[in-house]
Design brief:
Blueprint lengths: L1 E3 L6 H4 L5 H9 L1 E6 L4 E3 L7 E7 L2 E6 L5 E7 L4 E2 L1 H6 L6 E4 L3 E7 H10 L1 H27 L2 H16 L6 E2 L5 H8 L3 H13 L3 E4 L2 E4 L2 H8 L3
Antiparallel strand pairs: 1-2, 2-9, 3-8, 4-7, 4-9, 5-6, 5-8, 10-12, 11-12
Helix pairs in contact: 4-5, 6-7, 6-8, 6-9, 7-8
Length: about 230
């Protein structure tokens, strides 16, 4: 894990409501961490000292089981922030974060954030919005688990992986996740993933070759993902 002082990503995307002075103060207290594929950003049990914003690449959040097995609970995209709950709640990480590919992550010192919050209502409001967005994401996942058919949940995960791992203008990609990982993200069994993929193939939405996905109809995949 390599740290550097400046990166290609702007804090403006993470905190769009802050003014230039507030952004500059965050910049002074932040660094950019470069992660290679498979490297950990933090490990379950670590004490939080920073809030992290994904600049480039992506991370997976993993829950470790009592018998050593791991379950993926979330994929963190560029522009997303992790570590807020632990920093503000003052408790240790309950999950492990792993880079799915080469990634750059902004590390923002927690003390600097608390200092800004104490002096700036705009900063407090920005973090309230981030919390609200996180709650909305969790509510949507719960609603999907309750009401969206399993096939559409699988399609939603494949579509998300397509947007993350396919090169611009390309419809073929190989995600660094296996069918079990996709099943965990969709909250279904691996057998359900296989059936859903077979249905999508039969309908001309995609093809697979080993771990490689060929998206034949991106619009129809999006329709399946959104259960239209």
């Amino acid at each position: 894990m390599e740290k550097k002082q400046k990166g290609t990503f702007t804090l403006r995307r993470l905190f769009p409501a802050l003014n230039e002075e507030e952004i500059a103060k965050l910049q002074e207290s932040s660094s950019v961490i470069r992660l290679r594929k498979g490297q950990n950003l933090f490990i379950a049990g670590d004490s939080p000292r920073s809030i992290y914003g994904v600049a480039n690449g992506c991370l997976k959040i993993v829950r470790e089981g009592s018998e050593g097995e791991s379950v993926i609970t979330r994929v963190v995209r560029p522009g997303n922030i992790v570590g807020i709950r632990e920093v503000f709640g003052e408790f240790k990480y309950s999950r492990t974060s792993v880079a799915l590919k080469e990634s750059e992550v902004f590390s923002i010192d927690a003390r600097a954030i608390f200092d800004l919050i104490s002096r700036s209502p705009a900063v407090s409001l920005q973090f309230m919005k981030i919390f609200c967005n996180e709650l909305a994401r969790l509510e949507k996942r719960i609603e999907n688990d309750l009401y969206k058919p399993a096939r559409n949940r699988v399609a939603a995960v494949i579509h998300e992986l397509f947007t993350l791992f396919a090169d611009e203008g390309q419809t073929t990609f190989e995600p660094p996740l296996n069918r079990r990982d996709i099943a965990e993200l969709a909250d279904v069994t691996p057998e359900t993933v296989s059936r859903a993929v077979a249905d999508l193939k039969q309908n001309g939405v995609l093809e697979t070759q080993g771990a490689i996905f060929h998206i034949l109809d991106p619009n129809e995949l999006l329709n399946e993902a959104e259960d239209r």
